[in-house]
Amino acid sequence: xxxxxxxxxxxxxLFIGRGHGGRWRFDGPHxxxxxxxxxxxxxxxxxxxxxxxxxxxxxxxxxxxSDDLGMSWTEPxxxxxxxPQDTGASLERVWQLHPAGPSAPDVVYAGTEPAxxxxxxxxxxxxxxxxxxxxxxxxxxxxxxxxxxAVHTVVTDxxxxxxxxxxxxxxxxxxxxxxxxxxxxxxKGVSAVFLPDPHPEFGxxxxxxxxDAGDLDRLYLQNHWGVFRxxxxxxxWSDIGAGLPSDFGFTVAAHPHRADVAYVFPINAxxxxxxxxxxxxxYRTQDAGGSWEPLSAGLPEGDHFGTVLRDAxxxxxxxxxxxxxxxxxxEVYASADDGDHWQRLASHLPDVLCVRAAAIGD
Length: 362
What we know:
Layout: E1 3-10, E2 13-20, E3 23-30, E4 35-42, E5 49-56, E6 60-66, E7 93-99, E8 108-113, E9 116-120, E10 128-129, H1 131-134, E11 150-157, E12 160-169, E13 172-176, E14 184-185, E15 206-211, E16 219-223, E17 227-230, E18 238-239, E19 248-254, E20 262-269, E21 272-275, E22 282-285, E23 293-295, E24 313-315, E25 323-326, E26 332-335, E27 343-346, E28 352-361
Antiparallel strand pairs: 1-2, 1-28, 2-3, 4-5, 5-6, 7-8, 8-9, 9-10, 11-12, 12-13, 13-14, 15-16, 16-17, 17-18, 19-20, 20-21, 20-22, 22-23, 24-25, 25-26, 26-27
């Protein structure tokens, strides 16, 4: 029976859950009173390394790591993520921590606000700015979204360590095929309903991207209005939002093993940021967006107001897969059977900002 590690970043610290056979225990908060916007569970090591982007109101943003599943934490003596002096920028927040694929076992990427990508070659202890994205010729025309201007999603291709995809709020999707030495906008087909030209080369408000488990060239994208799919690694996108109660939302997650399976959590509207129809429902596609089904067994009935943010839904790598989400009500829910049935794991936590999970043993 698989043990699962579940990490929950909130506005007031990190909570760590350990699950076995449907029973869970949580400890925390770690980093008490710090906002935890980003978490990574790096399973490429014999013992998983936890990476956390903390944000102390007093000491500022930092990146911590643990090699004992959260029993102790290490913070570098010098800031792990720091903008070079010549950029004139200072770090406001680490929005994303993403271990690269197995062919690059010590590489970790960090996405930040201001919108930048950083690369680590020592497992996330120190990072260097990926300058070509920071210096991209379109950058002067990037505009902050409601949550700021940030690189909030990083997708790497396990077949090719030089293939990178990032999402920038609100500049859209950018891709590199040469390890970050050059970048191109990749937003063809993604709408920007809030701009005079609804189909610009860049400027889309992309909320999250997830990669399909079976076809690594297939990506799912939750936009600020619109759910999209790409079958060519982001070169072109098509709308797959038909059948959802709303195509506005923040998060999208892909099944870890099953091709064509993905999950979204629809929100009523950008001006009414509560669950679609005020119902706590995850929607799943099993045909790459051709159709969607609501998943509600075990979730609250009646009016519900818990918004799920862009990094607050995830899957683990168990079989059958665990699916998890947390909301701004401070609730955390889990399914141990691909989303068919749910249980509430925690309630009355602070505002949930991100969740990450991994199977850690039998």
